[in-house]
User: Fold this.
Amino acid sequence: MAESQREQKISKEQFRALARLSRLSFSEEEEEQFIAGFEEMITFCDGINSEIEGDASSIREVDAREIALGDLRADEVVPSLPNEKILSNVHGERGYFAVKRVVK
Amino acid sequence: MSGIIKKLSSMLQRGEVSASELAASYITRIEKLNPVLNAYVSTTFEEALKCAGEADKMIRAGMATALTGIPMALKDNICSDGHLTTCCSGILSGFRPYYDSAVWEKLSAQGAVLLGKTNMDEFAMGSASETSCYGAPKNPVDVTRVTGGSSGGSAAAVKAGIAAYALGSDTGGSIRQPASFCGTVGFKPTYGTVSRYGLIAYASSLDQIGPLALSVEDAAIVYDAIRGKDGRDQTSLTTPDGATSLETDIKNLRVGVPEEFFGEGVSDEVKSAIEESVRVFERAGAKIKRVKIPAFKVALPVYYIISCAEASSNLGRYDGIRYGYRAENFSDIDDMITKTRTYGFGTEVKRRIMLGTYVLSSGYFDAYYKKACLLRGQIISEFDGVFRECDVLLTPTAPTTAFSLGAKSANSTQTYLADICTVPASIAGLPAVSLPCAVGAGGLPIGLQIISGRLRDGTALAAAAFFEREAGVTAELCAEVKL
Assistant:
């Protein structure tokens, strides 16, 4: 038990917190299986800590924001998609998306 | 050079066949082969015949381009107005987009004939197309083998001759790897050269649309038709006017061979096929240089951290309210969203959403996501250095030939290794083409990957066209699929 706990990269509580953030739920049985596979993925991702030969001191970080915000277009108003088209394959009522009551 | 687009186009122009007859012949072949291959997950035959009628009018009016009247397919994550587009996921079941993607807008304006949507890994998350909610497509070369993924249905459709060409999307190799497994040409253009407007997002800083085709020339024709700046995708880039030239001065071509791509996990038959391909360039007078990309060893984990982080955010939009599936029997709106996502997403997608949430969460952000972004910078920098000395790099596309259906589906991280040779170019946003270079054991195709510098898409395609001519290994149509 102690051995398996020491090897665990993620506790059940952490896993459940992640599931809540991800808006997913798992049964007890699924949780066991998923945690095992999830730990394998984390171990795989720990590969970023491998040593790489060469000088990396001048390297700068590149993230998605830099790639995505290169060339912004002018903020011009263009026609929107018609409501009836957007609501054509969802739960729509009287021109709105219909959901269960939020404010109680 | 085999190819099919120019042949079909000239038959259409000369009136030897009409676009309507051509569409009907493809539909007949789809009806025969698709029940086994499972390459298409939805078909648009009625629309195809209507488009073909319009194409015939364009041809008669002298307004045809090379793609007018040519039957083709779109991957199931590329939107077209009114046609089922589900990302092969239960959560988008029944979803019919209400607008055209930029690529389909461009192709349909040229009179392309859409036959349907092709099978793929759910939300493009996989390397064998086995995570599709419709079941895996089968490789036309050997129907007991996977097609590769995630654009597996597109590769299978092209290889089996049930689409003259197809569009796929490539996030970490999803065009090139299935092209390698099925023995077609697959081209991932420079990130930004093809608009992603209407491509259902997986990892936005990596996703790129590109063609799968039967020759480099066919891939270049399609690429020329879909590329260019689009105000609806702020990452899209302006590309040069005119057709991409496939001519290359081979004696002045500097060819790099990065040693890391030939390491552990790459099979002997793949290694020797690529070394033989290098000799084809060498014999023709190209200058060969052995180069190093040390950060290759971290490319796969960097890719999975960044792509899952972006996916966890991109897939947050699936709440059962605006599109697709909605769970029944829920207590309140939070319960509805959680149940919709729990029942709607498949296991691999859930796994990647969870991993993405983990690497972005407080306490792990710096150790994983921030470090991966730093290493992404290092990979880009190493490629920049190599491309100061070389025009193209030659590598394997995949470490092995197509594996058996079901052989790796139980073990995710084993499947991830199938992307080891393709993710570095994706991380750096570089253009890369895969084309068949040899036939391995069991008659299975082996793919050669040619990578060039950013916005030097023509250099990669021209080098590939040279190889295709010189080596005489072409992406032949699999005319007889052994069902």
In short: Chain B has one domain: 1-483.
